[in-house]
Amino acid sequence: MSNPHFFKRAISILLVSTLAHSAVAAPESDRWAIWDARSTNDALTFDHSIWQQWLDDYLVEGADGVNRVRYGAVGEKGKAALAEYLKAAAAVDPRAFSADVQMAYWVNLYNALTVSVVLDNPGKRSILKMGGGWLPTGPWDDEVITIAGVALTLNDIEHRILRPIWQDHRIHFVVNCASFSCPNLSSVALTEDNLEAQLASAELSYINDLRGVSRMNGRLELSSIFEWYREDFADSETELLAYLASHHSELSQWLDDEPKLAERLRYDYDWSLNSAP
Length: 277
Prior knowledge:
Blueprint: H1 4-23, H2 49-58, E1 59-61, E2 67-69, H3 76-90, H4 99-119, E3 143-147, E4 150-153, H5 154-166, H6 195-207, E5 213-216, E6 219-223, H7 225-228, H8 230-233, H9 237-245, H10 251-257, E7 265-268
Helix pairs in contact: 2-3, 3-4, 4-5
């Protein structure tokens, strides 16, 4: 006799898989004009020291090059510190800052909010299982903070503010989605002073990491980031490979040795939580 519970579970798993795939499809870069304003006053800044201390306390730089977060070690003190940082961020209007101060503000805010979401969902093994709704596929469309009287989602910050206003492909290497295959959550809080160095370092680090570019079984495996957001990196797959080769220590040689690698591309992404013991 067939087991109705088995079929119900199978259908549920299939539905989760389908929705998860659609959830990670790249949202359009859609400029939200109300956030265009910026100041020319370089003296006005925002203090990220609370966030930096939080990173010092709970971020672990792995020997494998992967930064992980000790979510399980974050007690009431750590949660209070993170809440204090987010409260301070919500108390200002970032449009009063210069462009570099704003960019650092938005990136750090995005990352701190993502950490906060994970802490609010203990026991979940992937961010895809977090978020509102009866069948969560990620928290990116949930309103998570109010800035200057405007309720914002994580997707708003990344795809309606950071990507379209700054138009810098390296943003993808500094915003973190709490997943193994994501570019590292930096151990250093971004500031206007270290912004360019952090963007450049994050770009080189991820492209030269196995999560970004790897060669395996006669195939070239790339992070799905380069598929979802290819328009931010290049106009075609050929141009994408040229871009990656210009930043990767071995890719040019791989393609010279085995030209057919360019035709054997595979994109992959591991959504396992970037959790440290």
